[in-house]
Structure formats: C-alpha cells, structure tokens
C-alpha cells in the first residue's frame, strides 16, 4: 500500500523509510502487515484448500481464511471466514504457525494459521473461494499453492501422522 495523503488533515505524506510516512503536521502512518487468519482442515491425509476467486493470485490455492476485522480476535476471524468460505463450523482451533505473506509489491499480511481439531459440516464454497478441493498435504509446497508458508507441509504431515 502506498500512502499519499494524511487522513487527519489531508496534507501530502512524506515517506520516511520503507514503512513509515509523516505529514507536515506530524501525523504518522505505518505500512504494517494486515492480520489474517486461515485454517487447515484435514481428512484422510488430505488438506482442504480454496481456489482463489479474486486477485492477487486468482486461480491458485490457499488455506481458507481472510483478514481479521477490527473487533475480532484471530480465532473469531478464522471461524467466521470458515463459515463464509466453506460452510464448516470449526469450534476448536489450535495455533499451528504464524508467518508473513507478501501478497503485493508493497503489501503484506501477518498470517495466523490454525488447525481445526474438530469441524462439522460438508464443505461448500462461498465468498472469495471459487471452489474447494481436497489435496495431499504435499500440495502446499507446489507452485499451485498461492503463498509459500515455511514449515507448513511439515506441520500438516505431523498432524496427519
Ligand atoms: Zn496530517
């Protein structure tokens, strides 16, 4: 994200360094990663993936999830996104991994990855998910997976035994 004008006083912003902006009246802004949450649902050694219906990386596969809203915890965001994108109810989430995804040239997301210890329902694609597929956990290491997440395949393998 490129910040151009101050939202407090509308003065032009000057970029101090890679992440920090300031206006002539001293209002400061930081281009920080946006928090997101996603969930690994496993069944018979396979992981549930969503095909992205929107850019960036439209057509590639991701763990279902999305951005954390202002008044949500990452756990609440993960459960909401799972309901919206997969129709699944995921009452018990275990923290699996935290990492940073650079999803555009100047935009990043701090991504919290959960494992759904229990889940209910039949997967039905909705919202930003164009389709849902089951894939062997090794799929997350291929180029068809939208973002490289270090350790993800190992963590999923450990969960599938
Ligand atoms: Zn200002």
From TrEMBL:
<dbReference type="Pfam" id="PF00293">
    <property type="entry name" value="NUDIX"/>
</dbReference>
<feature type="domain" description="Nudix hydrolase">
    <location>
        <begin position="32"/>
        <end position="158"/>
    </location>
</feature>
<comment type="similarity">
    <text>Belongs to the Nudix hydrolase family.</text>
</comment>
<dbReference type="InterPro" id="IPR000086">
    <property type="entry name" value="NUDIX_hydrolase_dom"/>
</dbReference>
<protein>
    <submittedName>
        <fullName>NUDIX domain-containing protein</fullName>
    </submittedName>
</protein>
<keyword id="KW-0378">Hydrolase</keyword>
<dbReference type="InterPro" id="IPR015797">
    <property type="entry name" value="NUDIX_hydrolase-like_dom_sf"/>
</dbReference>
<dbReference type="InterPro" id="IPR020084">
    <property type="entry name" value="NUDIX_hydrolase_CS"/>
</dbReference>
<dbReference type="InterPro" id="IPR020476">
    <property type="entry name" value="Nudix_hydrolase"/>
</dbReference>
